[in-house]
Amino acid sequence: MNTIIVLSKDFAANESAVLDLKSSEFVNSLTAFTFQNKTGQSAKFLWQGDTIYNREKAGYFKEVNNDLGVKVNHYEGFITVTNGGGEQHLEGALQL
After folding, report:
1. What count of other Cβ atoms lies within 10 Å of the Cβ of residue 94?
2. What's the rounded Cα separation, in Å, for the pair 2 and 32?
3. What's the DSSP call for residue 85?
4. What distance in Å separates the CA atoms of residue 93 and residue 74, rounded to the nearest whole number?
5. Looking at residue 82, what is its pLDDT?
6. CA 36, CA 17: separation in Å to the nearest integer?
């Protein structure tokens, strides 16, 4: 399993960031999205792709554990990451 860091950012409370995966070569091989902050807390979301339609346009990230209060939304190859209620540095990695 390959891991690619796609986000490393200091977030304010409830701040969002948008990641464009539409133009990348690994959209169809997503398996999970993990986050960690500087204190070691983490969150993990598993990719639930639609096997009938194009995985780039159909699917979502299912929350497995989330100590960070992070929200992840997917829409046609774009991922929106929303921080929880406090300031923190998040590092996000896609697992392929």
Report:
1. 23
2. 11
3. S
4. 15
5. 97
6. 16
Please state, in angstroms and rounded to a whole number, the distance separating the CA atoms of residues 11 and 71.
13
> Scanning the structure block, which residue is given the tokens 């100590």?
67
Residue 56 dihedral angles phi and psi, to the nearest 5°: -65, -35
Please report, as a single letter, which amino acid is at residue 23.
Answer: S
Non-local CB neighbours of 41 within 8 Å, separated by 6+ positions: 67, 68
- The closest alpha carbon to 41, from 65, 63, 62, belongs to 65
Q: What is the pLDDT of residues 10-56, one digit of tens each?
A: 999 999 999 987 766 655 667 899 999 999 999 999 988 776 665 55
**Is the pTM value of this prediction over 0.90?**
no
